[in-house]
Amino acid sequence: MRIDGQHRNYLFDVLPGLTLFGLGMATLVTPLVTTVMGSAPPDDVGIASGVNNAVSRSAALLAVAVLPPLAGLTGERYRNPLEMTHSYRIAAAICVGILVIGAIVVTLTVPNNRSVSEGPPMTRETEQPILSQIHALVAEEHHLRSTHTGIGLKQAERQRLETIERQLDECWDLLRHRRADEEYTPEA
To answer: How many CA atoms lie within 13 A of 117 on its CB side?
Structure first.
């Protein structure tokens, strides 16, 4: 991917490389961000987004600051096309090595949980206990809120209300995950 004395055609010499690069970024970055955001608890999605952005910015800064010297591109060497080409190839090889190491680390350390939820597949029978628990929690929450309108809740009641809200979130999450598993799991 270059434009010099021998390669002057943008359409054939530059555009194919840029297109491949763009497709690669689209196929890697979008699923990565989706995975990061989807694996965070609902209350922590903002924090996960911030961490994801900070890590990506830091990695970009490190790549710009560290990669050229590692590839031997220092001082005035970037002005020499042969040095630049040689250093570019070394930098590309370093990046490939880092990606391979990252793939190995992920393969060895990240568990392969194909199913997000545990338990039997969703049917009306398996869904009913979760829905019953949701209805019971909602009824208790409504009772706590309606009987203390204008009076305020005691400390124990506020704690119980927080517990109910957390349990409701967990039930809804479990229900959504099981339904998603059922919807996207191929039939055997």
So the answer is: 22
Q: Which residues contact residue 83 at a Cβ distance below 8 angstroms, ignoring those fewer than 6 apart? A: 72, 73, 77
At a CB cut-off of 8 Å and minimum separation 6, what does 116 contact? 177, 180, 181
Between CA 48 and CA 52, with CA 50 as vertex, the angle to 5 degrees is 65
Q: How far is CA 79 from the centre of its chain?
A: 39
Tokens of 130: 């979760």
pLDDT tens digits along 54-97: 988 998 898 899 999 999 988 888 888 888 888 988 998 998 99
pTM for the whole structure: 0.48
**Which residues contact residue 36 at a Cβ distance below 8 angstroms, ignoring those fewer than 6 apart?**
48, 49, 52
